[in-house]
Amino acid sequence: MARARSGKGRGAGKATRSGTKRPKTAKPAAAKRTPAVLRPAEPAPAVPEPAAVATERTVAITVNGRRHDFLVPRDLAPETTLAYLLRERLGFSGLKVSCDEGACGACTVLLDGKAVLSCMMLAVEAHGHEVTTIEGLPQDDPVIQAFAAQSEPGYGTALQCGYCTPGFVMASVALLRENPRPSLAEVKEALSGNLCRCGCYAGIARAVLHAAEKLAARGGTP
Asked: Which pTM value belongs to this model?
C-alpha cells in the first residue's frame, strides 16, 4: 500500500517569503550643530625685552704701590683673572702660573697683605685693593735673603729650578706678617698649599725660620 506523502518536504519548517517589503526603519534625525561661540583672541605672550647692555665701569687696582685704572669691559674683560692681568697685561712675570686651578700656590700674591691665589681670583674683584707681587718686595727683604742663603747640611737649599719660589716667598711673607715667630709646625701648615716639584720642602721651612730670626733681630715684620 503506497505510503502517503506528508505535506512536510524539504522546505518545511522554513519561513515563507512574503511578497511584501519590510518597512525601512526611520533614521534618527541628525543633531543640529550649535554654532561655535566666538571668543576674543587671547593676547600673545609677552616677548622678554633684551637684557640691558652692561654699562662701562672703572676698576682701580694698586699694584706694588702704583695705581692702575681699567675700563670694564673695554679695557678689561669681566672674566679676566688677576694672575693674567698681572703677568700678561702689567708684565709682573715674577708671578708664575703652573696648575691654573688653585692647587700649587705658584701664583700666590698679597692682597692687602694677605696671601691669595691670583689664578682663582677675578681681576675685577681686586678693585679698590692693594696687590703686591714678588717684584714689590724690597731687595733686602729677610724672606728673600733667607731663601737665597739657605744651604745647610741635612736641609739643603730652599730652591732649585726656582719656578715655585715666588709663590713660597709671598706665602712666607704673609705668614710672618701675621705670626713673626712661627713654629716649624706652623710654617708647614701655612705653606701646605704650595708645591715644590724639586722637593726642597725641608730647606724652604728652614729658610722661613731663619727669616723669622732676622725679623726678631730687626724688631719688626716683613
From this structure: 0.74
